[in-house]
Amino acid sequence: MDVKKAFLNGFVEEEIYMDQLEGFSVVGEEQKVCDLQRSIYGLKQASRSWNIHFDEVIRGYDFVKNDFVPCVYEKVSGSSVVFLVLYVDDILLIGNNIKMLGDTKAWLCTQFSIKDLVNTILKYLRRTKDVFLVYGGKLILEGFSNASFQSDDDDVKSQSKFVFKLNGGVVARKSSKQDTKVDSTTEAEYIAALEAAKEAVWMKNYIQELGVVPSIAEPVVVFCDNNWAIAQEKEPRSHHRSKHILRRYQLLREMVGRGHVRMDRVSSSENTADSLRKPLSQIAHAQHLGKMGLRNHHMEASSGLVGMTGIPSSDNARLVLGLEEPWQPHTHDAVA
Q1: CA 132/CA 45 separation, integer angstroms
Q2: Helices 185-210 and 227-234, interaxial angle, to 10°?
Q3: Strand partners, 11
Q4: Structural domain boundaries of the chain?
Q5: So what's the pLDDT on residue 159?
């Protein structure tokens, strides 16, 4: 749903004056200015004023704000629950009780001018009906971290990447340039592992607040394909490859020590984060997409080769990509 003219709902806390609008000035008092009482578009604080007003209104309907994600609200009534997600002026309602969802939507319409955006969602679903994420697996949060060493030719900075999966599908992923230059692959991997660990701690706290994943009480496992980065986190030593690493990157060791995360080894070919940056073959890329839970239902169903929850093989991976047929060797591929 979309809140129409959302920023006009907020109230101004500061003293703000504006000139009288042309054509709306008071005759004989054109030299006077207006004392602004309500928020308008163009004010620096317009979005904040709207958010404060919305927060006050929604709390009055017994919604509770999430401490870790302030744009998420929750309302519980017995076994029924409704989650409300606010993104600027767009609202998403999720719940397990249709009547409770309907009542919440009807109440929102009495508080704000609301436009239903379900048609936009349906259009998106229609355009992407053959490619989608499939969830259905272990209800355990696990992450994968990786780094591309000096991938930027201009400033020779490296790239950090991470992917987090829950219930068989990806729930978070990021690829970003590191803010400092490094002189070894191992250092780049260590920094990337820290970024993944920070995301893991945030997700752990957020999911614990929701209370829907019992296993989140255990340390979140973050997989890395660099032996040195894992060894440095588990048993720090003074070494020529690590003694210069900035102190702020040693936060990873502290997170592990507190039991928030655990670093484990994974082979490079099984590291799902590889697909976010590293140039891969079509087959390898499609296999990683399959591990993230991404499926091309039309291609898989027509081929009959892959189950909806299976990881595609090298042949089947071509179908995830939308290629017409599994790979077959050409005559010039043969070796005498």
Answers
A1: 38
A2: 60
A3: 38
A4: 2-127, 142-274, 280-333
A5: 86
The overall pTM is greater than 0.70: no
Please check whether residue 296 is in contact with residue 316, taking contact to mean a CB–CB distance below 8 angstroms: no
Domain 142-274, what architecture?
A: 2-Layer Sandwich (3.30)
Instruction: Give the tens place of pLDDT for each residue, 231-278.
Output: 877 665 555 555 555 556 578 888 888 899 999 998 888 888 887 767
Phi-psi region of 28 (alpha: psi -120 to 50; beta: other; left: phi over 0): left
The whole-number average pLDDT for the span 171-177 is 88
DSSP for residue 298: H
Assess contact for 40 and 10: CB atoms under 8 A: no
Phi, psi of 196 (to 5 degrees): -65, -40
CA–CA separation, 317 and 299 (whole Å): 10
Burial of 277: CB neighbours in 10 Å, binned 0-12, 13-18, 19+? middle
pLDDT of residue 316 exceeding 80: no
Which amino acid, residue 313?
S
Q: Tell me the per-residue pLDDT of 100-119, one tens digit each, with 9 for 90 and over.
A: 999 999 999 999 999 888 78
Contacts of 188 by beta carbon, 8 Å cutoff, 6+ apart: 147, 148, 149, 150, 158, 160, 178, 182
